[in-house]
Amino acid sequence: MAGELHAAGALKRTMPIHPGPTSHRPLLSFDFTELDQEADRAGVLFLEQGETERLLLAAVRDSGWCDVRFGTEAVALDARPDGVQLTVDEGAATRTLTAAFVVGCDGTGSFVRDAVEIPFPGVTFPLRPTLADVRIDDDRDALPWPRLHNGRRGITGAQRLRPGHWRIIRVESGAPVPGEPVPGSEVRARAAEVLGDGPVEVVWASRFQFQRRASPRFRSGRVLLAGDAAHAFPPANGQGMNAGIQDAHNLAWKLANAVRGGDLDGLLDSYEVERRAMVGRVSRHVSLLTRIGLQAPRPVRAAVFQLMRLGLAVPASRRERLRNLAMIDLRVPASPLLDGAERAAGVRLPNPVLRSPTGATTRLYDLVDAGPCLLQLAGATERAVRVPGVTTVRIGPGGHRDPSGSLARLLGGDTGWLLVRPDLHLAWARTGAAGLRAAVARALGYRATL
Ligand SMILES: Cc1cc2nc3c(=O)[nH]c(=O)nc-3n(C[C@H](O)[C@H](O)[C@H](O)COP(=O)(O)OP(=O)(O)OC[C@H]3O[C@@H](n4cnc5c(N)ncnc54)[C@H](O)[C@@H]3O)c2cc1C
Hints:
Elements: H1 2-8, E1 10-12, E2 14-19, E3 28-31, E4 44-46, H2 49-63, E5 73-80, E6 83-89, E7 94-99, E8 102-104, H3 111-115, E9 122-124, E10 127-135, E11 147-150, E12 154-162, E13 165-173, H4 184-195, E14 201-207, E15 211-214, E16 219-220, E17 223-225, E18 231-232, H5 240-259, H6 264-295, H7 298-313, H8 315-325, E19 353-355, E20 361-363, E21 373-377, E22 391-395, H9 406-411, E23 416-420, E24 426-430, H10 436-443
Parallel strand pairs: 2-11, 8-17, 21-22
Antiparallel strand pairs: 1-4, 2-3, 5-6, 6-7, 9-15, 10-13, 10-14, 11-12, 12-13, 15-18, 16-17, 19-20, 21-23, 23-24
């Protein structure tokens, strides 16, 4: 569904950030085209979360796999060793459902998390963030964006949502008062800092808070937590929803394998171990960014921008920063399913441009379906290897070639096997097939070796 998301949003392949109300000279600039060898259309997609959710909901409904219900509140949960009973209030009546598993994706105030008595420790930052949408109807609508003003008492940013509609975000020091009314005069003053003077219609405005919290466990028996129910951190890099989607990507295939009789504890424990570590890394990074880039006094913030600018001038650190922003730098740690001693274990599968024998180009991900996959890097003479339940994609003479060489670098050789999990992270990579079947069984949480 990447095509639909791209069609609905504005993809910034290069993202200059412009200071103040009038400047056309960027404060910082991020050029995501540098990542083209490892990601398709790398960039920042500006799309309102409501739109993202509308498109995801349509895709879920089209899949035919899920029954999505609104106006249905989980009000009681009884977790047992062999299943979970969930009572839901549907307005007119309550119903009790029995399920093999329950995943609580019910936000920071999670009912499910409370029901299984998992705490949600953390901190609320001493910051007063404000969000507002405004309409403008003059030449300022053509200003380049995103825009940023490093003011004496705080930072103001602006991004264009659609013609004439802008989102203003302001973060300043102070005690957060979520829900406090925001005067229109305040929004207009903030808009002037990033868009310049002129008439502004305030569509809505609200105060919220920055938190950093994490559940010490993402699993309690057959109950799991994902998204903001499991972790919350400041939106400094815009990665909270993405982290929740990555939770779902990590968990979905494990639940499917558990339902099919796989090693339930290995599968579900690996979700907790892997995602807690990966989200923890993101959370630590954006929390540090929040402290030094938003919470600190103006001169410190200015120095941080200067340091960032210097860092972006150095190719290796620029690349690291871009990969970090795009969240493609996250490696799955060792877990019950993943042997950290194996070469390339946990590395995200790159998505290079491949070339077919006719010269046509395609991205690697277009050849890899939603299930587990074996990439066989083969010369002309190597025999194909078949493992039940695992698709094999042959890369090499007679098939697609990888001119980037990234797959051979990951493998450490020109021929061999790369085992790709359904969440597009590598589990195992070897130049010889010894141990391949046992590796598949472990990586996918099967109870017995194939
Ligand atoms: C200002 C701001 C900007 C952000 N920008 C970005 C960004 O650019 N990129 C990004 O990736 N992330 C961003 N985020 C973070 C992102 O909004 C959240 O991480 C994301 O919404 C979390 O999704 P979720 O589904 O886990 O939880 P939620 O969005 O909170 O959804 C939880 C759902 O569960 C439902 N629910 C709650 N209790 C029950 C119950 N008892 N029974 C049934 N249903 C229940 C709720 O009604 C709700 O629909 C931003 C956040 C903020 C505050």
